[in-house]
Design brief:
This protein has 10 helices and 3 strands. The protein is mainly alpha-helical and 280 residues long. The chain has 2 domains: 93 residues, DNA polymerase, domain 1, CATH 1.10.150; 147 residues, Intergrase catalytic core (hpI Integrase, Chain A). A hairpin with a 3-residue loop joins strand 2 and strand 3. The C terminus is likely disordered.
Length: 280
């Protein structure tokens, strides 16, 4: 048995050992390990951290999963998957005879809604964003970039990270095309950085998005990153911060089904590499 891990090891201590082991093995990407660590620290340790692993019975796990399920099916699913993978390690080293997660609550993945937005729904999204931005909030003022970020996603079909990675040099406002060539990554110990895509692509800009970007270019201060959507500190924005803001907006507006993927599926301008249809 691993001398660090035994039946009396607490769940919190096991998290530390397991994450350290994953980083040493380097089989998974740094971002994946960071996500596992976030799930364990945010969802598992506050509820089970003080227990020894021998005390983590299936009934206790079910209680946690039911609580998380009332908040979010995504949280529930992540907690079960990551906790199960971690306790597999305790079984492998002989600290547990069976993994209590394996007999726990079954979690079904809801069928994804692959709808694109209708014009009416799109206007509801824009109204919800304006309403959210106009609310008085305690603490630091939320970034108003979310409205323009969504418009670029709608216009280009790009992912959040790809939009956040855009530089002004990637946008030809005269020709109205965007070179989508990188995404944003955030890794523990490294920070947030711009990572080139394996395959870049040119995307046409519809008139409305081009005009919005022209105005943004005119009013934005220069930054050494040349970023279109930098933070107030002139660094790259993190994807999870934009995702969190959109979750708040859609929850307040009753638009829970509208995920960022819905923006990508909404019809937009043609790809400039595609030849125009012949004229009759």
């Amino acid at each position: 048995m691993n001398t660090k891990i035994n039946p009396r090891t607490t769940v919190a201590d096991l998290v530390g050992f397991w994450v350290e082991q994953l980083r040493a093995e380097q089989r998974l990407s740094r971002t994946t390990i960071d996500e596992y660590e976030r799930v364990l620290h945010n969802l598992v340790i506050p509820r089970l951290g003080a227990l020894s692993i021998s005390e983590v019975a299936t009934d206790r796990i079910n209680d946690v999963l039911l609580e998380l399920g009332e908040q979010s099916l995504n949280r529930q699913r992540k907690a079960k998957v990551v906790l199960g993978a971690m306790l597999d390690t305790a079984v492998e080293v002989g600290a547990l005879t069976v993994n209590p997660v394996r007999g726990s609550l079954s979690i079904s993945r809801p069928a994804p809604d692959h709808r694109s937005l209708t014009e009416t729904e799109l206007e509801s999204v824009r109204t919800a964003v304006r309403a959210w931005l106009g609310k008085e909030r305690s603490g630091p003022k939320s970034s108003g970039d979310i409205a323009d970020i969504i418009e670029v996603m709608l216009a280009t079909g790009a992912r959040i990270g790809e939009v956040l990675a855009l530089r002004w040099r990637d946008i030809d406002l005269g020709a109205r095309v965007v070179d989508v060539n990188a995404t944003i990554k955030t890794e523990s110990g490294i920070g947030t950085y711009r990572k080139p895509l394996a395959r870049a692509r040119l995307v046409a800009l519809p008139d409305g998005a081009a005009l919005m970007l022209q105005e943004r270019r005119r009013t934005s201060r220069d930054n050494f990153l040349d970023a279109v959507f930098p933070t107030r500190n002139l660094t790259w924005q993190q994807v999870n911060n934009v995702e969190r803001r959109w979750r708040q907006i859609r929850r307040e507006a009753g638009l829970e089904w509208v995920t960022p993927d819905a923006f990508r599926r909404t019809p937009r301008g043609a790809d400039p590499r595609r030849p125009a249809p012949p004229q009759c």
